[in-house]
Design a protein that fits this description.
alpha+beta; 328 residues; five-stranded antiparallel β-sheet; 6 helices
Length: 328
């Protein structure tokens, strides 16, 4: 039942590699924590044969994306690949446009590649590069960047500029990744350090002054000390729509599973996926006492679902005195 609900907002394509395309020996197909592949099969080059894009792993290069174009693969066995440091990739193909959307780290940083097959070049041409950063918890430093490789222009938030780029295809795309990151840095906002604000005797102070103030035990309590608060935050956000508040709730060691990663990264999802997320978790509630499995792991019994029909246990983990989502 959980799988049926999660598929509403976790857009990971399921596709098993066939004998038509054979992965090179130094690559293995990537499967997420739920054993789902990240792959898409469609006719990219218009020859009525299915082409393939798939997330793979390599001992030498880490996560990579491989693309098989049938028209060139059948003739010479050629394929394309580039390193891509993300295990959360979403592939879509619509109106002859292939889009790769990816989240990195805990999901606050994202990239997108938009490609279209060029019959003259006999290759997939990059027509747009996108980049987004939601900033820190207070959204300081957030920006959106778009590079239009057809008009050779870029925008960062509301600032724009001109570029002089050559044609970028799957054959040379890797050499431009560092350059894309540098484009428009002069227009990016400076990310301020998170400031913890305290209330004492009606006066607001910041964390630099905290050593001079005495606090009661109640004032020192961090809600993240409580696994129940952590899980209930999911249900709260599902109702308020403040999805960015979930970014910092996942395991900072990034050992959590794909389901919890999808929860923490829901702010990067489409409106349809966010709506489905709110429908699934908006009815959620904690149904029992926390079960402490070890000194650093615990289970929180919950129900959720459109009709509160799903009974699950949220697994959480303690890192540096704070609880984080781990799996369910």
């Amino acid at each position: 039942m959980k799988k049926a609900l999660l598929i509403c907002f976790v857009a990971i394509s399921s596709f098993a590699l066939t004998q038509q395309y054979e992965l090179p020996g130094n690559f293995t197909q990537y499967f997420d924590y739920d054993n789902n592949p990240q792959a898409l099969s469609a006719d990219f080059d218009g020859d009525a044969a299915k082409d393939l894009i798939v997330t793979c792993e390599s001992e030498d290069f880490g996560y990579c994306i491989l693309v098989f174009i049938s028209s060139s693969y059948k003739v010479s066995g050629n394929y394309y690949w580039f390193p891509w440091e993300s295990d959360m990739n979403y592939f879509t193909y619509e109106n002859s446009i292939l889009t790769i959307s990816s989240s990195f780290g805990v999901g606050r940083f994202g990239k997108s590649l938009i490609l279209k097959y060029d019959r003259t070049l006999k290759n997939m041409r990059l027509i747009e590069y996108g980049e987004s950063y939601l900033g820190n918890y207070e959204q300081s430093g957030a920006y959106e960047k778009t590079i239009d490789l057809i008009s050779n222009t870029f925008t960062v938030n509301e600032q724009s500029g001109q570029l002089n780029l050559e044609v970028v295809t799957l054959s040379n795309i890797e050499q431009y990744f560092d350059y894309f990151l540098e484009v428009g840095t002069e227009f990016m906002p400076v990310e301020e350090e998170d400031m913890i604000v305290y209330e004492t005797d009606g006066e607001t102070i910041d964390d630099e002054e905290v050593l001079d103030v005495e606090y009661t035990e109640e004032e020192e309590v961090d809600p993240r000390d409580n696994p129940v608060w952590l899980v209930e935050k999911i249900f709260e956000v599902a109702n308020t729509g403040a999805y960015y508040e979930l970014y910092n709730l996942c395991d900072p060691m990034e050992e959590n599973d794909g389901d919890t990663k999808s929860i923490c990264q829901i702010a990067n999802a489409t409106e349809e996926e966010q709506s489905a997320f709110s429908g699934v978790f908006g009815t959620g509630t904690v149904t029992g006492e926390v079960i402490y499995v070890t000194k650093i792991t615990a289970k929180v019994p919950v129900t959720f679902g459109y009709d509160s029909e799903v009974n699950e246990e949220m697994n959480v983990i303690l890192r540096d005195g704070k609880w984080y989502l781990y799996s369910f």
